[in-house]
């Protein structure tokens, strides 16, 4: 997953609270469109990693998609593929997706529910719209990087259908990961972080408290989202830096956004395809193992088969001709 933007991100100036460390200034990160699961698959908006801003806290990957009319289409069809060194966070606003993994987990995911998969040392999973899927598919796929001391933890899957929420006439805030304004998600985290979904009513103006030691960003999932007086197009992310004690979101029409944040992740990472490691050798080993194991009946596999999926797994792409390098959370200017 060597994702490098062709053009620098557009810069937007905004300030943090005085007297509290903030680094660097705000940035409007624009997404690029990529196929999900193959050249003929549905297309998504990929915002992280960005050219200059690779992470927000431990959040290292952010795709958003829809709302898409998939009437008469296959919708999301991602064959079995591997992961290492990360957690996957799926968030649906409309539609449904069937999750299956090599632990034997099988869940139909609906809007407002959290399927959290911890890859750790290695796991494989598939994601599919069911044959009788709804007409619209709309949501986001996110990853968090695991820190060094847990990056090889045993893989796991947890499912949370009842997440804490703050409700008001202005809209709803659902706490997906971590804690926000006294409401804590039951989801397992490996670094201090927060993830929350904002559903804004028409003409809403919502304010939420933030942890000043965290860096934060807001990912717009629909048009019409304004963050700290900055218009953020659908699929774009406004990085807010560190040192903020609150954030303000507004919208003229009903709108959706995700707040992502956490303690700055200071470990350098190698991110390639679906693997997160610390060195070129980590990635080579994971890729070789996947190529050796997938679509076989080998016992004692690192990734394991995805039972219940009807079709072949995704082969790994070829490695580049140069060594993969570990990189920090942002590119200094």
From TrEMBL:
<dbReference type="InterPro" id="IPR003829">
    <property type="entry name" value="Pirin_N_dom"/>
</dbReference>
<feature type="domain" description="Pirin C-terminal">
    <location>
        <begin position="197"/>
        <end position="292"/>
    </location>
</feature>
<protein>
    <recommendedName>
        <fullName>Pirin</fullName>
    </recommendedName>
</protein>
<dbReference type="InterPro" id="IPR012093">
    <property type="entry name" value="Pirin"/>
</dbReference>
<dbReference type="Pfam" id="PF02678">
    <property type="entry name" value="Pirin"/>
</dbReference>
<dbReference type="InterPro" id="IPR014710">
    <property type="entry name" value="RmlC-like_jellyroll"/>
</dbReference>
<dbReference type="InterPro" id="IPR011051">
    <property type="entry name" value="RmlC_Cupin_sf"/>
</dbReference>
<comment type="similarity">
    <text>Belongs to the pirin family.</text>
</comment>
<feature type="compositionally biased region" description="Basic residues">
    <location>
        <begin position="324"/>
        <end position="333"/>
    </location>
</feature>
<dbReference type="InterPro" id="IPR008778">
    <property type="entry name" value="Pirin_C_dom"/>
</dbReference>
<feature type="domain" description="Pirin N-terminal">
    <location>
        <begin position="42"/>
        <end position="143"/>
    </location>
</feature>
<feature type="compositionally biased region" description="Basic and acidic residues">
    <location>
        <begin position="290"/>
        <end position="300"/>
    </location>
</feature>
<dbReference type="Pfam" id="PF05726">
    <property type="entry name" value="Pirin_C"/>
</dbReference>
<feature type="region of interest" description="Disordered">
    <location>
        <begin position="290"/>
        <end position="333"/>
    </location>
</feature>
